[in-house]
Design goal:
This protein is mainly beta. The chain has two domains: 81 residues, no CATH class; 351 residues, Kelch-type beta propeller (Neuraminidase, 6 Propeller). The strands form ten sheets. Strands 23-27-26-25-24 form a five-stranded mixed beta sheet. Strands 1-2-3-5 form a four-stranded antiparallel beta sheet. It has a four-stranded antiparallel beta sheet with strand order 7-8-10-11. The radius of gyration is 21 Å and the shape is globular. Bound molecules: 2-acetamido-2-deoxy-beta-D-glucopyranose (NAG) (6 copies). The site of one 2-acetamido-2-deoxy-beta-D-glucopyranose has 3 residues, from loops.
Length: 437
């Protein structure tokens, strides 16, 4: 070999090494992960890598990976500064994470835990995992009075209040077997300061695959998803009858919303703005991966009026089962299923980052933390509430929704379609799984 050839091979090796190292630092596309903002770090936990048949429970490839983005410095959305953290003891998806306002530890509550990279449910797994991001340590706490009916609970979106109480409503224990599941309408409360569990029995319709957003006044707003009509019967939830739970007096009430025409959906995300608006994004409304319309909508939580922000359609991602967080005026979306390219049998998954500046509803490609915060002060009455608003309101806006309810109605519809070949699914179709037999 002459010198020139040597230089060429060295260059090749360097280039290959560079690519290798680079690829190591880019997370694979995934969906159904959960995410939380801890200080300036945006964390992503778990998810499913599987691109084949999203209706087939056994085809999942559930990861234990933990990734985070440091939001304290600028970056381009094409090259986010990804960091990989210590993995979880289990593969995890279909759950949600809450950040304690007290010591910023992360609580993974419910969801499904798997032996990594398989879809073998680890039935013995504990329903709550705690992550200390200071030292990258996962632990399983002892919970006093844990209600074993909560085991395998999924399709839920727990939220944590500023006193460290986690509220988890409804959900299902569906694990892929349509002849063995129930829907719940109870409210479980985990007080993370004493690690005690309590269950409120509540006579309101259960919800699953909804988003839950805690307002500064202590009211949790449940949007979208599926509403249960019995322990095994559900339908798409109305966007105009919104169930709310008051964490101060444990009362439920249904708010009647009006305004713009907003389609029902599951697999969407929700974030709370400093003005008290909830912005929902993405999701789908049926089993054929049709994007929900409009894909972005805003709910004013004082007037309960829906409106549709004027967002440039160009480069607008149509995502479901993604993560969304509000950081200042930046709504950051990551991962998820790209609906326009997915079908029942094949999912195209994303590992992209999308940032919407909600000051003017434009997509931006340069993340600049100094420009991300507006001067508006949150509409809250004391410091504690400010913390809640910024820390928890944003954290609670992160969504993780389940694919398996869609699976549930998918399987049912397939069966129904076989029986009635002309059946065309329409929004608002009631899916009576109990009639399957
Ligand atoms: C579901 O996925 C598993 C694992 O990939 C496969 O063995 C099985 O045949 C699939 N079932 C159906 C109904 O497609
Ligand atoms: C699951 O994903 C991992 C990581 O990409 C991959 O190595 C593995 O082959 C996948 N397993 C299956 C069954 O597809
Ligand atoms: C992490 O470190 C911060 C700052 O030192 C501290 O306030 C917090 O309590 C720590 N969190 C945990 C879970 O140890
Ligand atoms: C599904 O649940 C039914 C009723 O509990 C049970 O008989 C059946 O064996 C289960 N099927 C699978 C594949 O686990
Ligand atoms: C769900 O709960 C019902 C009622 O307790 C039980 O019969 C069923 O076996 C459970 N299914 C799973 C998958 O745990
Ligand atoms: C446990 O949860 C179930 C289901 O919501 C409920 O019926 C039961 O009363 C709860 N048990 C206790 C001790 O709260």
């Amino acid at each position: 070999m002459n010198l020139f050839q040597n230089i060429q091979s060295y260059l090749l090796i360097i280039i290959l090494l560079f690519f290798f190292v680079n690829c190591q630092n880019i997370p694979k596309p995934r969906y159904l992960q959960t995410s939380s903002l801890i200080g300036n770090r945006l964390y992503f936990f778990g998810g499913d890598f599987s691109t084949t048949d999203s209706s087939n429970f056994s085809a999942g490839n559930i990861t234990n990976e933990v990734w985070y983005l440091d939001l304290s410095s600028s970056f381009n959305t094409a090259t986010p500064p990804w960091n990989k953290d210590v993995g979880m003891p289990i593969g995890y998806f279909l759950g949600a994470s809450c950040v304690s306002p007290i010591d910023h530890s992360v609580f993974l509550v419910g969801g499904m835990m798997f032996i990594q990279n398989t879809a073998n449910i680890n039935l013995g797994s504990w329903p709550v995992y705690v992550f200390n991001s200071n030292i990258s340590l996962w632990t399983t706490p002892n919970i006093i009075g844990f209600n074993s009916s909560f085991k395998m609970r999924n399709g839920i979106q727990p939220v944590i209040d500023n006193y460290g109480k986690i509220y988890t409503f409804g959900g299902t224990n569906y694990t892929g077997n349509l002849s063995s599941f129930v829907l719940y309408n109870d409210m479980s409360i985990l007080d993370t300061t004493s690690m005690t569990w309590s269950t409120l029995a509540i006579s309101i319709n259960g919800l699953l695959y909804y988003t839950a957003t805690l307002l500064p006044n202590g009211i949790i707003v449940y949007i979208g998803g599926l509403i249960s009509r019995s322990v095994i019967l559900y339908e798409l939830n109305s966007m105009y009858e919104i169930q709310t739970f008051n964490t101060k007096n444990y009362n439920w009430s249904t708010k009647v919303a009006s305004g713009a025409s907003i389609g029902s959906r599951t697999g969407h995300s929700a974030v709370l703005t400093q003005n008290g608006d909830i912005i929902i994004y993405g999701g789908l409304w049926n089993d054929t991966h049709t994007p929900a319309t409009p894909y972005i909508a805003k709910l004013d939580t004082s007037s309960w009026m829906w409106s549709i922000p004027n967002v440039s359609q160009i480069n607008s991602p149509q995502l479901s089962y993604h993560s969304a967080v509000l950081y200042g005026d930046y709504m950051i979306m990551a991962f998820g299923q790209i609906l326009s390219m997915s079908s029942i049998s094949y999912s195209v998954l994303s590992n992209s980052l999308y940032i919407l500046d909600i000051k003017n509803y434009t997509w931006i490609t340069l993340f600049n933390p100094n420009q991300s915060t507006s001067n508006q002060t949150p509409p809250s009455d004391n410091h504690l509430h400010n913390d809640l608003f910024i820390g928890i309101g944003i954290g609670a806006g992160i969504v993780l929704l389940g694919v398996f309810s869609v699976v549930g109605f998918l399987l049912y519809k397939r069966k129904k379609q076989n029986q009635y070949p002309k059946f065309i699914p329409t929004p608002g179709t009631t899916d009576r799984i109990n009639m399957m037999k």
